[in-house]
Write a structure and sequence with these properties.
84 residues; 2 helices; 6 strands; globular; GFRP_sf; GTP cyclohydrolase binding; membrane; nucleus
Length: 84
């Protein structure tokens, strides 16, 4: 079951948007125009796009993903998506 989490900071709701981790589907990340980067102090990689979450959600809907949940965690907005 392919699930995907995307997130953004509430103060950055116009982007960038985190769209995946180092184990995400490379083809999907390429389709989103995501760039893989490592933030200083983190021991993991994340994929980011400069698009706002609304644009990312539109692109993911076109790829067959549906939002199954959304929440705010501190100052972070998180969407959980699933593709049948």
């Amino acid at each position: 079951m392919p699930y995907l989490l995307i997130s953004t900071q509430t103060r950055m709701e116009v982007g960038p948007t985190m769209v995946g981790d180092e184990q995400s589907d490379p083809q999907l990340m390429l389709c989103l125009g995501a760039i893989k980067r490592n933030t200083l102090g983190n021991h993991f990689w994340e994929y980011y796009v400069n698009d706002p979450p609304r644009v990312v959600l539109d692109k993911l809907e076109g790829q067959g993903f549906r939002v199954v949940g959304m929440t705010g965690v501190g100052q972070t907005l998180v969407w959980c998506l699933h593709k049948e």
